[in-house]
Amino acid sequence: MDEISVLIGGRAGDGINSAGLIVAHLFSQLGYQAYMYFDYPSLIKGGHNFTIIRASRQKVGAFRAKVDFLLALNQDCLDLHTARIDAKTVVICDSSRVRAEGICIPIPDILKEEHAPPVMGNSCIIGAFARAAGIGWEVVEKVLTQNIRKGLDQNKKVARRGFDMARGYVTVPVHDSPPLPLLSGNEAIGLGLLHGGLEAYIAYPMTPTSNLLHFLAEVGEGGDLLVFHPENEIAVILMALGMGYTGKKTAVGTSGGGFCLMTEGLSLSGMNEIPVVVVLGQRAGPSTGMPTYTAQSDLHFALHAGQGEFPRLVVAPGDAEQAFFWSSLSLQLAWKFQVPAIILCDKTLCEGYYSFSDPRETIPTIQPQPPGIPGTSYLRYKVTDDGVTPPLYPPTKETVIKVNGYTHDEAGITTEKAELAALMVEKRVRKGMALERELALLPTVSRYGDPGADSMIVCWGSVAGVCREVADSLGMGVVQPVVLAPFPKDGVKAVLGNPERVLVVEENACGQMEMLLACHGIRASGRVHKYDGRPFTVEELKERIAGVP
Amino acid sequence: MDEISVLIGGRAGDGINSAGLIVAHLFSQLGYQAYMYFDYPSLIKGGHNFTIIRASRQKVGAFRAKVDFLLALNQDCLDLHTARIDAKTVVICDSSRVRAEGICIPIPDILKEEHAPPVMGNSCIIGAFARAAGIGWEVVEKVLTQNIRKGLDQNKKVARRGFDMARGYVTVPVHDSPPLPLLSGNEAIGLGLLHGGLEAYIAYPMTPTSNLLHFLAEVGEGGDLLVFHPENEIAVILMALGMGYTGKKTAVGTSGGGFCLMTEGLSLSGMNEIPVVVVLGQRAGPSTGMPTYTAQSDLHFALHAGQGEFPRLVVAPGDAEQAFFWSSLSLQLAWKFQVPAIILCDKTLCEGYYSFSDPRETIPTIQPQPPGIPGTSYLRYKVTDDGVTPPLYPPTKETVIKVNGYTHDEAGITTEKAELAALMVEKRVRKGMALERELALLPTVSRYGDPGADSMIVCWGSVAGVCREVADSLGMGVVQPVVLAPFPKDGVKAVLGNPERVLVVEENACGQMEMLLACHGIRASGRVHKYDGRPFTVEELKERIAGVP
Amino acid sequence: MTDRGLITDAQNTWCPGCGNFVIQFALRDAIQSVIDSGIERERIVLVTGIGCHAKMADYLNVNSFYSIHGRTVPVATAIKMARPDLTVICCAGDGDAYAEGLDHLVFAAKRNSDITVIVHNNRVYGLTTGQYTPTSPLGFRGRSTPGGTREEPFNPLEIMLSSGATYVARGCTRRKKNLEKVIGEGIRHRGFAFIDVLQVCASYFNLSDVYDRHVYELGEGHREDNFSGAFEKAREWDYNSESPISIGIFYRTLRPTLEERMEKPPGQIMNRPALITKILESRT
Amino acid sequence: MTDRGLITDAQNTWCPGCGNFVIQFALRDAIQSVIDSGIERERIVLVTGIGCHAKMADYLNVNSFYSIHGRTVPVATAIKMARPDLTVICCAGDGDAYAEGLDHLVFAAKRNSDITVIVHNNRVYGLTTGQYTPTSPLGFRGRSTPGGTREEPFNPLEIMLSSGATYVARGCTRRKKNLEKVIGEGIRHRGFAFIDVLQVCASYFNLSDVYDRHVYELGEGHREDNFSGAFEKAREWDYNSESPISIGIFYRTLRPTLEERMEKPPGQIMNRPALITKILESRT
Ligand SMILES: Cc1ncc(C[n+]2csc(CCOP(=O)(O)OP(=O)(O)O)c2C)c(N)n1
Ligand SMILES: Cc1ncc(C[n+]2csc(CCOP(=O)(O)OP(=O)(O)O)c2C)c(N)n1
Ligand code: SF4
Ligand code: SF4
Ligand SMILES: [Mg+2]
Ligand SMILES: [Mg+2]
User: Domains of chain B, with CATH numbers?
Assistant: First the structure.
């Protein structure tokens, strides 16, 4: 048994997300890598929430169509997931609410006996699951202890009761790899930003990046990180630019609707050359769409948002390590080149959990821009060879620092002169080229699978996880451009080679990556799209790929 | 003398724009086609404003590097335009403010003698110009009478004084073509929208479309057009959707910064299927940039603005007739297919004046969508073959009409179901395909010059005017896609043929049309960019094209 | 329009105990009484923002425009402007109407647009899981402010009075009867009607006890037509400290509505072809 | 920072007779006196919107952030939050601060962000050639309202008082001395200072005569610390009818500023690598 999948489901408010995380931690302790998908509708109590935890000896970033264990806190959970059950699936359920064959635990009775509140039903079913999967009680105890803040003893008691009532079906083998931390994509982004030097984070809540705000707000309570939630997203980005003007490395986070409201500020950032990092979490659109479901349909919007032309960095990490790595680099690069950067992620990445291998040793330090020379002759927009002006921030002795969203001269004073305007356009263009040169030294394109395969998949963002796995099983190769702007055309071409088939896999309907590739002369021979808000399962993608002519 | 160019310049507040228009009307009366470019900085009084009027027997949409007459109301006008003067140029000036050779008129003295206010200096210099150009007094009188609202008699008097003081240099031949109306691009758009059935126009002022607001506000005072200027652009687009919900055909106008603020509403329009037409006047960016100068740098932003995927119509007219034609069609098509439409124009088009040949007879009437069937079973998002739902608007007897920016079912009730979500994505995709089919019957691509030329220019928007002219003189062909989304790929390829050279001419730095062509597999062999806010002159473009390898 | 009455058969997903249910029934009853008074149901339009409150669009079986976060008011204003024969009601959230889209609210009041805005003021962002809003008390620990907010709430009634609202009321989901009254009167009011509803959020900010303790109805003695009195009364409670909280109609007056002022004199209508021709002629 | 003093050598493009000149000199003098009182010039930051008023960023030789239309306040708030040792002043327009970006103004007042906002209230959009603003009188014929506006102005002082501003003043460009005083006091005020400046627009709305006739200074008798009195005084003139127009400081009080409340207890700083490692451990 190299891998194992567990689904746990119930109503919103039942703590399904935390329960899933506990299960994932159980596997971590046994030396597995875990991945957890969390599926929930946009409501607070009721409805149906579920998580699928998949653990494997290999790095994993996708889930399968079938599960080995189904932990059902209510009947819905069984009824809605019959398709995920096969002959081998062990069902564990609350016998008071679910009619099923398998391990049926009278959870309310146990809770009553232990004087425990309903939300602890989770722990009970997890206990039963552990026993069924042959996971030792000491592992359960350790994980509960590490992860439960309130009512630990009671939780342990009800878990033990579940444990004791179940019987072993299988025994998940134990491996001696040290346990890895489990991070959500949001947390990985947050930590990456901190690693890159983040000093301030401003956001207005919006799924799927609200949890990044919550995470950093907690961090900010204890440390020197300024976190603020203002009146709306327009204020968010303008505040970020105000922070940036004083030299504070600042990021913001949002999703499509909020990003719309930031586009005017983004263009200002392009013009006044105050860097800002925007974490843009995609979800199913257009408009409010399905706020808690995933999509990859804002690629071109991210590439082109804001009036006028200005260089920008756009990165689309596909898992927690890439999220950490490129969040750190985005901040560093944005600051070095004084451009806006967008971290384009999606609900699957943001709210999924991943076993995390600390990538810090591999992250290059970007040499920061040397500061300008203070004094009365300082020019905030001095035209230089590479287009980047040595920055200074107020207060700087004897120095006036003028930033300006109008076309301006080197000092930052508004101009409408034709030659000066053209000069400044060229300055910004050169800055973009300098950024491109710096990126040429970085791993902007990831590859997986068979590099010399006839059949190659191109994908981006969180879909990389499932593509990697499917490619492995089909003998294909995968090319994942992580940097999307400036587009690493040469890198992609080099990695892609000249295969017979190029399949583009995307979670949208219009083929946005395919279009981007086409712009750069790379033609796809086939495509697989999904646009119902749910990520591909391994089997689904495999089948869909098989169906492409 | 087949054509003639006149520059008139002075300070902001001197009425340079109106003066230019009067000169253009003089030429209209003589049977010429006229084009007028207006150049002004972003200030109210002072600075330097000028217009260049070019009249020709042919349709004209560009100006030359040199002028035949330079009418200088101040010294700046002479000093700033020395490059436009050659041996043949006749200078006419206010002798009290300008030292020059040519026709020098003591304007202040004349005004004083006629008890006329300073702003009438224009009329005086126009009178002198008319005489110098051999234009009869009766023509001047007629044009003044038709165009001057206040103080006509006094204006005539000072014009006559100027007329009498000058001497004839040339005699502009008179042709017997009937005079054409002169329209700014903004007015042509406004009239086109009215032709298409416009019922409401909402806008927050922003150059270069403020004058469209002013024009329609005047129209609205006298007729049944609802015009409103609310607190900001977010309100603008949401109000437009509110209007659209009641069935009122509505348009809005803005420029890049305001458009940013509309993008969230645009995406809502894509989702709730309430049509809206957005007039997007480009100007030099990024950010506030140079508000009164031109650019073509929002193409991809217009194509991709708003989160998520939804069909949209984007048209980029190149002159006043196209502006009228496509504004009418945009409104009709947006309503038929219930999609947002963007009329992508620029400062050159919006604020330039063109002799206008009424295109009404050539505009097809788009068969509107038949209305839905009222009653309790009406479904606002009924899934149909072509994706378009027969609409109804409140109040409709016995009918509940629900529109929704969330993913919704056919009745407009929020859903998060995977299958329903996919179904609705496909509905919208099919709507886009239906729009594309309708467009296939329309002249989405314009061509000029030699259709079989080895060397072809591809251009878009207002640049078409100068390209047309240059292509004619260089024996090249021109392809101008007027519809940019859905992109008429086949049409462009058909018209383009297979030439040796494809030059893309654009007023931006990054080659946005070139990128769009590349997306559709059309490769450019060369490019000419301009990004200083000033449109190409005929000579400049010729020279630049000659310089492309 | 099914004949199932004013409630659709969409599944209701509010939390048990949520104050939104009370608003739903109060609004339904108010709408019913408007219908009973002779306004056809198809003339009623509901506009909602985004948030828990906004689900009202799915639940009430009347025309509805489910808008985006913070943007009920411009949509509603435009609907009323386009069709003054419609009765337009907004259900907005406090995050929605007081944070994201405050400016529109002020302008609707200023213009005296004849719409009714009901703010489901649970003093928290419900749907995004419990962050502070402009009316959360100082020190509120939400998920974006785990150490407590650093700002006092504002008083929406004061702001609305200052902005020119001609009907300013407050309700509370702990007092359904009064709520129905202030909503009904608001809908009937000719001009901009603003109703701040203190709504209990069972999951993130359950102030039932506080409201039960402090809420009282404005008495007979309160003069609705007196601006200064209304303003003073509005200042009695600052949305922060514990003090008596009055509910009811604070202020009501009449001034010309936007729609009245926008009305065109009859007989102005000109057919489009003729209009276009006339303009072209004037430009020749 | 050239040593040319507080005025840059950028060409000034305001119209002759524009009230902005008066604001410019009043502000320059106020800044000079702040500098004289010991605050280094490099600690002063000017944030402007977009409009005629905003050209101040080009004309004053101090640090400046020339922002976008309607967005002075969030920029200024953030600058102050990031660097409380800076003195942050906004020059905003009435279109800018009262229409496009009104919400930010309300929130700065609510939070008591220690910045100073000077609104160049010419009651018209100058730079876009004369459209009505939220403070234009009813019936104003601007280029977007050739038949006259259909809405009354709002009173920005009332709104600011209701929003929690701790310093609310009005000046007029016809009274430079008083203007300099209210600006200077505003800058020195600890907390959010709001100054509505009735500014003459020579080209599109020249109200010199009206202001000369009606403007008077608040007398000794006016108590700046009395909210109700200030509110009542603010309502004396409604920005619409002709009536006496008082200028001066309407209201001044102290409450904790946002920046004070945001200040971190010392000693909290943790180095980043250690912090990241600690969090990773907690997730294992
Ligand atoms: C532009 C934008 N920003 C953020 C969001 C995310 N969002 C959805 S609901 C909500 C808060 C809702 O709070 P409130 O308006 O008080 O409504 P409640 O849920 O409390 O009824 C937010 C921030 C969004 N949908 N759109
Ligand atoms: C988002 C956006 N909308 C519109 C504009 C166009 N615009 C520039 S200045 C201005 C009005 C300025 O009026 P006000 O703020 O009163 O300043 P004033 O010129 O009167 O000083 C407008 C609408 C813009 N720059 N940005
Ligand atoms: S979160 Fe609060 S407001 Fe939202 S449904 Fe639940 S109880 Fe009601
Ligand atoms: S338009 Fe008005 S505000 Fe602008 S510079 Fe001229 S006088 Fe001043
Ligand atoms: Mg709320
Ligand atoms: Mg103004």
Answer: 3-165 (3.40.920.10), 181-441 (3.40.50.970), 445-546 (3.40.50.920)
